[in-house]
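Input.
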Amino acid sequence: MNQYEEAERFAAQLRAVRKRSGLSYDALAQKAGISRSSLHRYCAGTSVPQDYGAVHRIATACGATSAELRELHRLWAVADTERERRVPREGIAHGDVAAEQHEAGRRPSPDSAGPESAAPTEEATATAQEPATASGNPLSQESAPAPGSREQRTGPGRLPVSRRAIALTAAAAVTVLGTVGWAVSLSSAPDAPAEKADSRTLFSSACPPVVSMGQHDECVREAQTLLKRHGAVIAVDGDFGPQTLRRVTAFQVIVGLPPNGVVTAATKKALYESKVRMDTWSPKKVRERIREVFDATPDDAVAIADCQSFLDPLHILPNTNGSRNWGLFQISDTRLRELGGTPAKALDPEWNIQAAKRLWSRHRDFHDWPHCERGLRTKASATPS
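Output.
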């Protein structure tokens, strides 16, 4: 298999789903809302989508089952990790080459740094040591060398042949001695200690490169235990279900990683090494603050938030189109962009409540939460007058 084997596995699954659907590339691209050329690259394995949303749209347009969606999510996460790992490595290689070439351009070559650069000094020394001629003026002799003299044979600004040979021999000796010394220092240096195997469970051979939705084993249990140590409210049962998906995604947002909802190498490392906390507001504090902000309709606002997130500030819900809703009032990706927010802001309960108030203030109603608003109306109509 080629060096990008994870991308090929992902592409093979995507091709199988497309082929079974019977859709042409043109029809599928139009239905999924992506370009035909991008779809071709994804199915050929020459490119991996940077956002899982595109994969989800393609798969649902093909009528993929829930099991196929989970498998595509897992394969995409692994292929995306491979892509992220590959790009920095290639960039570093190019940078090293450029640095070496730049450094080579700055360093003088052995020839230019050796005898010729030292020649003026040696020549000046040699000239200073020579006695004056019978005419009494060494300068007149330098400006007009006598026929057959040493300076006429070697030419102005050049060492005599014998001294040039000595200088070249000395330079070569220095080079050889330097090389020998470098080799001796390498041979005498103590061997580097062998790299120890990572004893952390998630990095052991017992766990796959990516821990993801639908998995049920000790690797999931380890991830849940680590999330709980960071302050997450989560059951440690070894089952990677919706609750674990939400907590993994929230942790990734808080720590600054791509929120793909799967435990890749970067997420594993952060789970073990990051100091971030996932502690957040209690349901009691959430109710009190919502009532303060929504002073005109406190009961309805609390009921909407309870319907949306069970008053959980770190609640994250994926949608069928690949987008997500965030936080207490489940602010959608679209609304998040309109409000100038980010997933990290949306998981801040204060920001989320204030954002919901801004949405409510547009029409002074809860039409942004139609499902829960209908529930409020049904409850109101059922209440006896």
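Confidence is low (pLDDT under 50) at residues 88-146, 150-154.
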